[in-house]
Design goal:
By secondary structure, this protein is an all-alpha fold. The protein contains five helices and two strands. It has helices spanning 3-26, 42-54, 80-88, 102-114, 126-132; strands at 61-62, 66-67. The protein has a two-stranded antiparallel sheet with strand order 1-2. A hairpin with a 3-residue loop joins strand 1 (61-62) and strand 2. Helix 2 (42-54) crosses helix 4 (102-114) and helix 4 crosses helix 5 (126-132). The protein is globular and about 35 Å long. The protein starts with a helix and ends in an 11-residue tail after the last helix.
Length: 143
């Protein structure tokens, strides 16, 4: 990895972390929404939150953490796995269940599942996301 790319990645993470921390402080589990992405548009949620780590082209990155690509990612084929990862986090992926609504999570998953070279059948529904929420489970520290 080049030094220039490392600096860009570090800058993107540095910009995203205060934003994510502010959102976590202002939103409780299952009720929060991302203020800059009030719409359920998957493209809007991706642009405002996800692409800071997964990159604009969804190819992921390697630096302080290994950020997996979403482009061509076979793990997106099933609904349950990406729903749980977005809700509860995994590895370097923070838990976003406390700041994103069920509609926003379904929207961004459907956006990623149909873009970046992905063409997975069957949309994720907000009802599926709601059903995956575990009552009393905190959205921090990974599942």
């Amino acid at each position: 990895m080049t030094m220039k790319f490392s600096k860009i990645l570090l800058g993107a993470v540095a910009l995203a972390l205060p934003f994510a921390a502010a959102m976590a402080d202002n939103a409780g589990p299952q009720t929060g929404t991302l203020p800059t992405a009030q719409s359920t548009s998957g493209a809007t949620v991706y642009a405002n939150l996800c692409q800071a780590c997964h990159m604009e082209d969804a190819r992921g990155a390697v630096g302080a953490a290994a950020i997996p690509p979403l482009a061509g990612n076979k793990h997106l084929a099933a609904h349950a796995y990406p729903i749980f990862v977005v809700l509860y986090g995994r590895g370097a992926m923070p838990a976003l269940g406390g700041i994103l609504s069920d509609d926003q999570i379904a929207g961004v998953l459907n956006y990623v599942r149909q873009n970046f070279g992905n063409h997975f059948a069957g949309p994720v529904s907000p009802t599926e996301v709601k059903a995956a929420r575990i009552p009393g489970k905190l959205y921090a520290g990974g599942f």
